[in-house]
Specification:
By secondary structure, the chain is α/β, with parallel strands linked by helices. The protein is built from ten helices and seven strands. The two termini are about 20 Å apart.
Amino acid sequence: MSASEGIVQQLTRIPFFLKLWSRFPLGPLRLRVEHGIFPYPHYAYGLFWAATLASRLGIERISAIEFGVAGGRGLIALERAATEISEATGVGIDVFGFDSGEGMPAPVDYRDLPHIWGAGFYRMDADKLRKQLSNAKLVLGDVRTTTAGWIAEQHAPVGFVAFDLDYYSATVAALQILSGPPSTHLPRVYSYFDDVTANDLGCMNPYVGELLAINEFNQRFADRKVCRIELLRVHRHRWERWQERMFAFHNFTHPQYTQLVIPTDRASSQLPLA
Ligand SMILES: C[S@@+](CC[C@H](N)C(=O)[O-])C[C@H]1O[C@@H](n2cnc3c(N)ncnc32)[C@H](O)[C@@H]1O
């Protein structure tokens, strides 16, 4: 840790410092990603590391996707983070937001948790949202149709995905985004799942919702898995609500999965002398 990073670390112990810093988000990008000084810190974290991974692999452009846009707060945050992260890493980032445009469709069965979510929740005003976006593209329609259509088109490989569709049925469809050939995704795709938890009346469990969709995806492929990033807390300065919702997709047979992405300078390749 550098001296200035140490000072920042000390400052974060002062009550309200983090709130103040979030209000006036100054300082280097990496430091703000590490301390979660973003409106959607989980999006900034996933996208920063996706772009860093792409840069280390020599990939010039990636796609970043939010499944489930609603009013657009998350997509706007993703687009803003993408602009900054792209400038800092030199990796181009195309941002896409998938949504019905008409709020939640009807739940299919109990696996969509109709005791928590229902048809018409989270409506979008697409015209209003478009005016607030600069480059991000809205992909409107039911993801059970639009996801397959998007994969069939030519896009930069997917590097970050936020899954926030609430339903099991929609998440199964959205996960198709990771079922294409290796050229359509990075070997590891940072993936945020918003709904692996629910409110106290929801009683989330692995047999419904996003967790079931993830389990089924993992059973379907021998060489592709979506897994929680283990012990993410260890690498963060403090516990944050989103940490248990941060996953990574792995394509173990991706041609670049085993490519070294850690800098090979002396500091990282040699253990310090005792
Ligand atoms: C909780 S909201 C998303 C909130 C947003 N990510 C944010 O941070 O502000 C869930 C969204 O998923 C969308 N959705 C659910 N099922 C869908 C489906 N089958 N196809 C398209 N969109 C769907 C709904 O329209 C709704 O806007």
